[in-house]
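Troubleshooting: if your tokenizer reports a length mismatch, compare your output against this known-good record of 337 residues.
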Amino acid sequence: MAIAEPMLQAMGYKKGDRFAAMLIMGIAWAATSSSAVTPIAHSTIITMVDWLQRDFSYRVGFLQWIAFGIPVGLLSYLVLLAFYRYVVRPDVRQVSSPETFEYIRGQTSALLPVTLQEKISIGVFLSVVTIWVLPSLISSILPPASTYLDRLGTAIPPLAGAALLCTIRVKGRPVLDFAHWMTKGVDWDTIALVATVQILGSALQNPNTGINEFLSGFCKPMGTSLPLWAFVGFTIFFVVLQTNAVSKTVPMTLVYTIIVPIAAACGKGNPVALGVTIAVASNYGFALPSAVASTAIVAGSGWVPVGFMARYGFLLIIPMTLLLTFVCYPLASIILR
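Known-good structure output:
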């Protein structure tokens, strides 16, 4: 948005204009669709990986996740492009104006060279990604090293990388200022939400509450009567519909806690693949500011009227549900055997 807003203003667009609303909304939607491409893209994905290891003793590796996450993410992007082209159909004639190209040339020429601090940050980031990927690559060559790195999980490598950036100093200053990071760089609200949802998930699964047993009894007939594609489709639609109205973490917790045990008990498909598809679906919020952080940001910017976003966002639920049902789940079932 920091790039798009001045560009729109340079082209003569104002807040509320249809093309400007479409572009800013598209930025939010693209960010939303990318939230499940890797297992570290969002806290919900990390949570799901932990749940699957806890409940099924199945550790979803980094390479395993991106093996289906990248294709699904790319297809989601193509769905968005097709949706804009044939459903939203914005007028893009003003984009090709000379002022637009002049603005882009001016911004390009003003770019500064990469600093040493930025190079160090990139190096540490690539090192963290390498540690995530290595266990899958060296499991047959160096089993002990693979096991050790895998036990680090997804949280330890980035924490170690952040600590390293706080330690390395350039011209007397740390690459990453710890005080600034803790006050400005950490979304403590999200961390509190994830911790609370973990407690909520434990409560839902606790047999003493009776909640799990009641909802399981209500939903169990679907596991035995519906064909697999309809069962998966209903599950994903239920998740996406809820996500477009409330925070993504709550629908994921509720649906996983109820539906996945039913699938496992009835022998319905691959429960691990269903779990990761539920996690992916929980990130697909497009319609309301309450859905995900990206929609809340663009709605609050003033560029995107809430009614405009809701009208097209709810329509987008249908193609995205079909994509996750007939592409994401089957692909994850093949990879996560």
